[in-house]
Design goal:
Strand content: 5-15%
Shape: globular
Radius of gyration: 28 Å
Number of strands: 12
Helix content: 40-55%
Largest sheet: 6 strands, mixed
Number of helices: 13
Length: 489
């Protein structure tokens, strides 16, 4: 009889534990779904970056680290929804399973630094805010900044137009303070609820391994509310100052300047050359680009800068046949005092690496670059090519990244920033051009490559992101694209 009684009681306790687990799981799913809605709205077709502070608010309001992790993961999963189409477009043979697999895998990669930082320290309001601030900074800068998409710092272009790098810093501070403030409000609320009659003690019953029932009574521990009003007042006061600053800056912002009529972007709906094409096909593309560029500059007044799409000339290395075509373009542009910026993948030789059996292999890499012909000559390389697709530093034949290069590039005397396709979705590549004590860039040149894209989803969100950076830094943008959304020549 005693054993039957204990067994019945154990089963009852187990049912209670199952209900508790199901409730916890349901709460986590709800937080994750809420984050997904926020991510989809912020990074969807509308590109509503003004909603990004809600991520910080939810981060502070979440009751524990597990709910916080679910909230942030949901945000990155919902915000990266276009990756489903991106992977399927790049590798159509594996569609749709590759997209279904890689979409959540990339979301996990993006959220991982937030999870690791979020697991450190006690859940006090200021620690929560510090975690959010550290997560913002670490994922905005190299090396994590090389692939950390969907940064909440894009809200800087909405809140602090024309403020440049200072706007980025103010946006990071504002987001961190929102998380502090909402954490303080939540802690104060929990302290009040805990002080109500009948809410102070909780009893949990757990079965032991030997089937004896052990009653374990825990006093519910809440952060005492006597320190919370100070935290709430301080963070709230700082938030009011920043919100007032945001309102003033938006009221007096005169609008982003229009691009200089002398800089012209040319869209060419051509299919990009695959990497493994023959030398002769590359030369044929360079000939076609040369002829097209010469036709374009003849349609324009003199003293113009012509911007062509990213990688439109394919893989390029100096050789006598290619030099014939570049020499023709150079002569035509010089005669008109023009500059033609041609997107190409410039192959460069590295060190000679000893191979096996006494042989030697050429180590090579390439630059995702704009090659300038005409009145000004130069090679302007992208500071962050696409990871895994282009930038694979552990592998021979990788594109090069330039993490520590700061300040603008110069076209003659004109300083400019360059935001090449994928870089538009990151924080640091564009910001690095404005980290200067000299002249700031006067324009953002944005060569793009979307020939692989079947729908305009990824192209659209990149343009929204690019406009946010242009608004933050107060400069115009000139784009050149090669997309016809899967219908290029």
């Amino acid at each position: 009889m005693m054993q039957a009684h204990l067994g019945s009681r154990w089963r009852g306790l187990w049912c209670k534990r199952c209900k508790l687990c199901l409730h916890t799981l349901g709460v986590l799913i709800a937080w994750g779904l809420g984050g997904m809605v926020l991510g989809a709205l912020s990074w969807g077709d509308l590109g509503q970056f003004f909603l990004l502070p809600v991520l910080a608010m939810g981060y502070g309001w979440a009751q524990n680290k597990t709910r916080r992790a679910a909230w942030v993961f949901g945000y990155f999963l919902g915000g990266s929804w276009t990756l489903f189409g991106v992977f399927n477009a790049f590798w159509p043979v594996a569609s749709p399973w590759l997209g279904l697999l890689m979409w959540p895998a990339v979301a996990v990669l993006l959220v991982l630094p937030w999870w690791l930082i979020g697991a450190v320290g006690k859940d006090t309001p200021w620690v929560i805010g510090l975690r959010f601030l550290l997560s913002l900074c670490i994922t905005a800068l190299p090396p994590l900044g090389a692939w950390s998409l969907l940064s909440p710092l894009f809200v800087a272009g909405v809140l602090f137009p024309g403020a440049g790098i200072m706007g980025l810093l103010l946006a990071a501070l504002l987001l961190a303070l929102w998380s502090v403030y909402f954490a303080a409000v939540r802690v104060n609320r929990e302290g009040i609820l805990a002080a109500l009659p009948g809410r102070r003690d909780g009893t949990r019953v757990t079965p032991s391994v030997t089937h004896r029932v052990t009653l374990v009574t825990h006093r519910v521990t809440h952060v005492t509310p006597h320190v919370t009003p100070v935290t709430r007042r301080v963070s709230g006061g700082l938030l009011l100052v920043l919100v007032f600053t945001t309102l003033i800056m938006n009221i007096f912002y005169s609008g982003r300047p229009q691009p200089d009529a002398q800089i012209v972007g040319v869209n060419l709906p051509w299919k990009a050359l695959p990497r493994n094409v023959s030398f002769w096909r590359n030369v044929a593309r360079q000939r076609r680009v040369t002829i097209t560029a010469m036709q374009e500059i003849k349609r324009l007044p003199e003293h113009r800068v012509l911007l062509l799409p990213e990688g439109i000339a394919g893989f390029y290395f100096p050789n006598w046949l290619s030099n014939v075509w570049t020499a023709r373009l150079q002569a035509a542009a010089v005669a008109r005092q023009d500059v033609v910026l041609v997107g190409a993948y410039d192959i460069t030789q590295g060190d000679i690496i000893p191979g096996s059996h006494g042989t030697h292999n050429d180590s090579w890499h390439y630059l995702d670059a704009l090659n300038a012909y005409g009145n000004h000559r130069g090679v302007y390389a992208s500071r962050q090519p696409v990871p895994l697709g282009e930038w694979k530093p552990w592998q021979n034949g990788s594109a090069r990244a330039f993490w520590w290069r700061t300040g603008p590039d110069y076209l003659g005397r004109m300083p400019f920033a360059m935001s090449v396709c994928y870089s538009q979705l990151l924080v640091w590549p564009t910001a690095s051009y404005f980290l200067t004590t000299g002249l700031a860039p006067k324009v953002i040149l944005a060569p793009e490559n979307h020939d692989w894209e079947v729908t305009p989803a990824e192209n659209h969100i990149q343009h929204v992101a690019l406009q946010a950076w242009a608004r933050l830094y107060g400069v115009p943008v000139v784009t050149a694209n090669d997309t016809a959304f899967g219908k290029g020549e």
